[in-house]
Write a structure and sequence with these properties.
Blueprint: E1 3-6, E2 15-18, E3 21-31, E4 39-46, E5 52-53, E6 56-58, E7 62-65, E8 68-79, E9 82-87, E10 93-97, H1 98-101, E11 113-119, E12 122-127, E13 131-139, E14 152-157, E15 162-166, E16 174-178, E17 184-190
Antiparallel strand pairs: 1-7, 2-3, 3-4, 4-5, 4-6, 8-9, 8-11, 9-10, 11-12, 13-14, 13-16, 14-15, 16-17
């Protein structure tokens, strides 16, 4: 633990340590009841397991500051169930398993730059860019003249991710996909040949 902070310093997105585990604050509210001492209601998510807790802390209570570091890294390749990354500054390599990455694995393609999160020197997760460009490897062909407004069809991307796309999208097209909303189609970047 790198230090301690008081509940008065809480803000959304702040990383804290409770019981030896790193968490990020998703929501907090300082409450001053008519009787009794004030307290802070919080909603925190574990950076390791993803579980959500809602502890109530007394005002002035101290929590730890986790030993967390983020490094800009490049995704290299998949070997078995290990996704390998390289630090762009010192060329050191590390890997994360499919279990640790969760849904982020569906957006990883070779040479993409990500931010890898380390806790006490161990890689525990990645932060993806807001969007990635992925090639469509499988989808039903677009039908000329089919102009139903808002109609969608499933398309399989090069990483295995399945995204609902407009009817005019074809195999080979390169699409911009939003990583924040679980793989939402944004726009077509290039038409396949």
């Amino acid at each position: 633990m790198a230090g301690v902070i008081d509940t008065s310093e809480f803000r959304n997105g702040l990383k804290i340590e409770l019981d030896g585990e790193p968490f990020v604050i998703e929501y907090f509210q300082h409450v001053k009841p008519g009787k009794g001492s004030s307290f802070t209601r919080t909603k925190i998510r574990s950076l390791i397991s993803g579980r959500v807790l809602e502890p109530t802390l007394k005002s002035g209570e101290k929590v730890g500051v986790p030993d967390i570091e983020e490094k800009d890294m490049e995704y290299l390749y998949l070997q078995g169930d290990e996704f390998h990354f390289m630090d762009k500054h010192n060329y050191e390599q590390t890997f994360l398993t499919e279990n640790v990455l969760g849904d982020a694995k569906d957006f990883l393609k070779e040479n993409i730059n990500v931010s890898v999160l380390f806790f006490n020197g161990k890689a525990i997760g990645v932060t993806l860019p807001n969007s990635v460009d992925l090639k469509v490897t499988k989808c039903d062909p677009g039908v000329r003249g089919d102009t139903v407004s808002g109609a969608l069809k499933p398309a399989t991307m090069e990483t295995g991710l399945v995204v609902n796309v407009p009817l005019f999208i074809n195999e080979g097209d390169v699409l911009k996909i939003d990583t924040r909303e679980g793989g939402k189609y944004l726009t077509r970047v290039a038409v396949g040949g």
